[in-house]
TrEMBL record, chains A, B:
Name of protein: Glutamate decarboxylase 1
KW Lyase (keyword) present: yes
Keywords: Decarboxylase, Lyase, Neurotransmitter biosynthesis, Phosphoprotein, Pyridoxal phosphate
Catalytic activity entry: L-glutamate + H(+) = 4-aminobutanoate + CO2
Pfam families to which the protein is assigned, alphabetical: Pyridoxal_deC
Domain of life where this protein originates: Eukaryota
Family: Belongs to the group II decarboxylase family.
Subunit structure of this chain's protein: Homodimer.
Cofactor: pyridoxal 5'-phosphate
Function summary: Catalyzes the synthesis of the inhibitory neurotransmitter gamma-aminobutyric acid (GABA) with pyridoxal 5'-phosphate as cofactor.
């Protein structure tokens, strides 16, 4: 580590804000950069821990002098640097090659560059008018068009916006569908519409349910669709439930096809669902928050066949494509709906008498007012990698999944169902001879949580687990970290065996 | 500028992602830091332009080789650095001391440090469980409690969450109010409730209207309240409209008191509104997105007297407190509502069988799934400035506003109504002798847009304008930039006179 010069004993309040841009503050910033680069080097070093686990009460009590409490008086810059180092020390290194815990992991240096530049752009407030954010407005426009071309809409026609995450993107899709079929709800409320029902997979992301509650449909009017043994929606079940809803006098409005479910990574059959949507005049939304990245791969995009028939698509580059959070797009095939649905024509924000072409002001399409700039990092990564670079990244992640699948397929002590995300149980030797039945289920249910707890305490690797339906807790392996290699997969499997052997 | 070594002619796709953490990529990152620090130095240099204005078509055509289009093949790192510099070059320097355009401006070096560290934390995905984000979950908890103490709720009791901006925070408040009074709407939809009406100032932020559309109330059920000559809600008008709504058989549910309206900076009389809310059993929400920062100032917090009687409060540290976007909190007085309203109990996300105290997992309170980490920068700034530092910042901004007000109060060619935000017309000499009337109004309406266009083209300063009600376009001066001084105020006034003199 480095020694802090005496000048850092000055409280920052005396340097700031008046002296921004002067030498002491710039030097301070450079010291932070030093902390940062040293941290990044360590992140890629497999001999460092993924995390240094402590319980909440330990952190709250102020472990090793790390004091989370806020105070009336300013701290010295020296102390701020110490706080920064402590924050990094007790955080989880989500970019570590052995962190497999979430749908998005890893660290892309070009994404980093964005974040660093964001610093310098002082992106304090973006209403997303061309006036304030000329370059970003255009980057967003070009990138969304490119994404729509990749979805397969002719000439990339349509509309879209970046939102703060897939849950909000999915919420947009429900709002827009309602506006398309019942525009009067905007002014008169849900009372102006008949009883509307929505359909989604029993394995779909919970954000569809959150949207149905928030937007005033009610979760009981979200009808869950049955899935086959691989977790894909059964189209006949959709049609039966649509007919049943109509028989009751309800109006079927909206269907989500999930392209990459959260747990199994299942891809619903979009073409067959689209046929039913056309037949019954329903909005088709494809939730590709997780799986949308596959559209970049010529080898794997067939899993989303039919996506070009969707009315709207959620696609999160911050998941499989490795863009730093947050970066989620909602794409809409019909132009004008997004604006019509959300525009409130606030004269104080969107003055029509500006000197430039105000059709570039995109703010009134959003449910937000100011928006965080999520586009720049994505645009910059696309520049740096090219479309082919994203393709290689996707292909590599799927290759590693296949490697893991093949590795544990016939390995003693592992069991798994057939899914795109590699999901598996580790069966400790003590359970292997037990017959199928309630006792085995109950004991197996406790294995993954125990292994995970040991993993977190030893800090060697991280992988998620969850139950699903009638299946007891199982591990779900998600590979989107560009730094992961086969040796990290080997490590994970052996670590699970080591930790779980005596359970 | 600096010369790029030969190694940057390597396409980044060849360096990335496999070689993250190795020397060439680390060197690349350091070069970006060099761009960044040089940019920051310039930002605080008043001799640089606030912006270098170009029309959309000019940027799209690729001015001076700046190519926004995405391509299949990767670019070289050298080109990526050029792209970064171009992005900065054509962006607006919102941290410039003479940028007064929005409710939030300026650059705080400690906020910067956060962004820099965010880089190193690789904050790619936050579901906001303690598992993934132990330090941030605790920082959020402690900071929200501190904010609730400052609002004045006993012992800082209550609940809250950071959201992606004030519009979403306001949307939360409406959802929570509905859940409190009509919890069955969550499952059964708006059909389960009577006709609900909401009330807000005619000058309130348009996000309340967006929320009423999105959540299924309908904008017609949002009733606008009349304001006095200073833009504050007239309590008697609220009571009359509540009585009228009840007479029609509607159910008055929710009232927003705005603490700092967007244009005039007016503060609604919270205590008188709270009396009416108590009398008629309605939810009181205080939208302090803009004015909440005044709570930090002993001298100015009286403008929010009565805020402790609110059921919920929106407070955006990213506005007057100078925290980099995005940083918006929704605070709720009654604990449990936020969770009850939004929780969907997704077993695959929030496993109850973890080894730590899972009440620290805050994710299921949010309408989002993953959340961007907005807390760290705020926490770090609070550490660095202390509560007293924020107070000084607020006091300084309000002093500068008073300085501007006094400067133009009796100055020839300026007129203004009485508001907290300094709003004013510049009257060019050619209009000064015109009598009040339609011709003067129409000509005056065009003055601010013309001066603004000239400002943007010369790039010397930026200030917003808008019409409001029957008032033609006027300038609105917003001071939240910590780097602004009286000389910048002087400059602005003289620049308006210079640009507008011959109109």
């Amino acid at each position: 580590e480095f020694n802090l010069p005496k000048r850092y004993q000055t409280p920052p309040a005396q340097l700031l804000p008046a002296k921004n841009g002067e030498e002491p503050t710039m030097q301070f910033l450079l010291e932070v950069v030093e902390i940062l680069t040293s941290y990044i080097r360590k992140t890629f070093d497999r001999s460092t821990k993924v995390l240094d686990f402590h319980h909440p009460h330990q952190l709250l009590e102020g472990i090793e002098g790390f004091n989370l409490e806020l105070s009336d008086q300013p701290e010295s810059l020296e102390q701020i640097l110490v706080d920064c180092r402590d924050t990094l020390k007790y955080g989880v290194r989500t970019g570590h090659p052995r962190f497999f815990n979430q749908l998005s992991t890893g660290l892309d240096i070009v994404g980093l560059v964005h974040l660093a530049l964001q610093v310098s752009l002082l992106l304090v407030w973006f209403r997303f008018t061309y006036e304030i954010a000329p370059v970003f407005v255009l980057m967003e426009q070009l990138t969304l068009k490119k994404m729509r071309e990749i979805v397969g809409w002719p000439d990339g026609e349509g509309d879209g916006i970046f939102s703060p995450g897939g849950a909000i993107s999915n919420m947009y899709s429900v709002m827009i569908a309602r506006y398309k079929f019942f525009p009067e709800v905007k002014t008169k409320g849900m009372a102006a519409a008949p009883r509307l029902v929505l359909f989604t997979s029993e394995h779909s992301h919970y954000s569809i349910k959150k949207a149905s509650a928030a937007l005033g449909f009610g979760t009981e009017n979200l009808i869950l669709l049955n899935t086959d043994e691989r977790g894909r929606v059964i189209p006949a079940d959709l049609e039966a439930k649509v007919i049943e809803a109509k028989r009751k006098g309800y109006v079927p409005l909206f269907v989500t096809a999930t392209a990459g479910t959260t747990v199994y990574g299942a891809f619903d059959p979009i073409n067959e669902i689209a046929d039913i949507c056309e037949k019954y005049n329903m909005w088709l939304h494809v939730d590709g928050a997780w799986g949308g990245g596959l559209l970049m791969s010529r080898k794997h995009r067939h899993k989303l066949n039919g996506v070009e028939r969707a009315n709207s698509v959620t696609w999160n580059p911050h998941k499989m494509m490795g863009v730093p959070l947050q970066c989620s797009a909602i794409l809409v095939r019909e132009r004008g709906l997004l604006q019509g649905c959300n525009s409130m024509c606030a004269g104080y924000l969107f003055q029509p008498d500006k000197q430039y072409d105000v059709t570039y002001d995109t703010g009134d399409k959003a449910i937000q007012c100011g928006r965080h700039v999520d586009i720049f990092k994505f645009w910059l990564m696309w520049k740096a990698k090219g479309t082919v670079g994203f393709e290689q990244h996707i292909d590599k992640c799927l290759d590693l999944s296949a490697y893991l699948y093949n590795k544990i397929k016939n390995r003693e002590g592992f069991e798994m169902p057939q899914h795109t995300n590699v999901c598996f149980w580790y069966i400790p030797p003590s359970l292997r001879s037990l017959p199928d039945g309630e006792e085995r289920r109950q004991r197996l249910h406790k294995v993954a949580p125990k292994i995970k707890a040991m993993m977190m305490e030893s800090g060697t690797t991280m992988v998620g687990y969850q139950p699903q339906g009638d299946k007891v807790n199982f591990f779900r392996m998600v590979i989107s970290n560009p730094a992961a290699t086969r040796s990290d997969i080997d490590f994970l499997v052996e670590e699970i065996e080591r930790l779980g052997h005596d359970l």
